[in-house]
Structure prediction request, 263 residues.
Amino acid sequence: MMSHRKYTLSMIFLIAVFAATLPLGQLNAQEELTADEILKTLTETMNPEQSHGTMTMTIVTSTGQERTFKYETFSKDKGDKSLMKYMEPQRVKGQTILMLNDANDIWTYFPRTKRVRKLATHAKKQKVEGSDFSYEDMGASDAFIEEYNALRLDDENKEGRSCFKIELTRKAESNASYARVMLWIDKENFIPLVVDYYHEDDPQLREKQLVCHDVQLIEGIYTPMDCTMYNKLDNTYTSMKIIEITYQVDLSDDLFTEMGMQR
Prediction:
């Protein structure tokens, strides 16, 4: 029986943490992997079965001012169901965001008014709490496969690691927010270390860049503990850091409902 190794990535997902399995046989045939095969493995890597964690999100403005949020995160069904509940600061404590169906359906709960509000579909492109991550960036999905055509370029070193380099170009019928995406994927563990996002109206204009650091082994899963999104147009950036995370969890479907948001 073929053995397997598990890996994960924290990026363009609500909890910014992902896990997957990579057959060792593929590692021995890396040079023969096509862009689609690499992308498929990456997509699997981006979708853990379940997870529960605590994270911080620090937003740094162009003038150097900082705002930090702390929140609890939950994910189920390989990211199809995602929920984040703010813990700090006090002004947003208890505020909750629920994303279903690959972030195509988004709800927010405000404890002060005790109201649940469903966001419009175009809200996927909006910033989360004014950060450099959009809801679309944080939503786990197979959008890279469905919305883009993939091309494998020459391998490159990135962040001191040997990486696959993949170029994604948006399909004509796609509604994706980016015209083009470049990925540098660690050849050993299939973690995207750097992702460049290009403006939806100009495939040559780099809008944002995601960089992941501090990969740790947690419960047998390699996990980037620090991912930062740099906004190249606004000269701002947002860092998301994992305080703690577990993948050995059994979450109830009731948590990912309007009633579950209010608990």
Summary: The chain is about 10% helix and 45% strand. The first strand starts at residue 4 and ends at 7.
